[in-house]
Specification:
By secondary structure, the protein is an alpha/beta fold. The protein folds into 2 domains: about 210 residues, Rossmann fold, CATH 3.40.50.150; about 45 residues, no CATH class. Helices cover about 40% and strands about 20% of the residues. It has 11 helices and 9 strands. The strands form 2 sheets. The protein has a 7-stranded mixed sheet with strand order 3-2-1-4-5-9-8, with helices on both faces. A two-stranded antiparallel ribbon has the order 6-7. α4 links the parallel β2 and β3. α7 packs across α8 and α10 packs antiparallel against α11. This is Class I SAM-dependent methyltransferase.
């Protein structure tokens, strides 16, 4: 790593962000050259910063039209691609030098197929940065499964917090093949055992080089943070950040190289 790249990594804009996955991804991607794809970029919280400050030539891809429209409005110079759930990626073989999948794998209908596509569009030796929720003692608190386990309660609480129209657009209108951020055809938000995830990566042709994680109690803080705002939310997010620095059990972070 060059001195400039090392300094860029040290001065991470995500150093105090409550979601430690962004700091992990920044540490591996900032200062790189070549082309980078943020696969499942969502509203672009990570991608936009990497695009502006990080170094690689960034592109984003996601199946959610609303996320892409908002990101395009804020960053019209950022190449974005609309994906179709369950279909091959619209990129030629070996196009990218790095790919990030930040809390995406647990949302897709076919994990092996997506990893195979990530392998295909990466150049040999290219870098995959992957984060997922890890299976641990508090996995049962995963709020993304509430819409399946307690659909009526989920609808009432979500509609109270964000409005009935937003609930209908995100969870009743399935025209974009998404139920919230979950692909239609998947009925659980997976929390992965480390060994199972590494087996998936190796089967897809990746060699893991870094395996770590973050958090333990964060679901106890994340759920109320989702339902509130203002100073209370900021206080809860500071607690999530501290939990991420102290513990390594609740989220799983992996960097891996694409094998030939």
């Amino acid at each position: 790593m060059s001195r400039a790249a090392a300094e860029l990594t040290r001065r991470s804009p995500f150093a105090t962000h409550p979601l430690r996955r962004y700091a992990f991804a920044w540490a591996h991607l900032a200062g790189r050259t070549g082309r980078h794809l943020d696969l499942g970029c969502g509203p672009g919280d990570f991608l936009a910063v990497l695009h502006q400050q990080g170094g690689p030539a960034c592109e984003g891809a996601d199946p959610h039209p609303g996320y892409l429209a908002g990101l395009a409005a804020r960053h019209p110079d950022l190449p974005l691609h609309r994906l179709r759930v369950g279909r091959p990626l619209p990129f030629e073989d070996g196009r990218f030098d790095s790919v990030s999948l930040l809390d995406v794998l647990e949302h897709v209908p076919d994990e092996a197929a997506l990893l195979a596509e990530a392998h295909r569009v990466l150049a040999p030796g290219g870098l995959l940065v992957l984060t997922v929720p890890r299976r641990h003692v508090f996995s049962f608190l995963d709020p993304d499964n509430a819409k399946f386990d307690f659909p009526r309660l989920h609808r009432r609480i979500y509609s109270w917090r964000f409005g009935t129209e937003v609930w209908h657009r995100r969870f009743a209108d399935l025209s974009d093949d998404l139920r919230g951020d979950m692909s239609v055809g998947r009925d659980r938000h997976t929390n992965y055992r480390t060994a199972d995830l590494l087996d998936l990566l190796r089967a897809a042709g990746f060699a893991p080089t870094t395996v770590t994680g973050a958090n333990l109690f964060w679901r106890w803080l994340q759920i109320p943070a989702l339902l509130t705002g203002g100073p209370l939310r900021r206080l809860l997010e500071r607690g999530i950040h501290l939990d991420g620095r102290l513990f390594r059990s609740a989220n799983l972070f992996v960097a891996a190289r694409r094998l030939p």
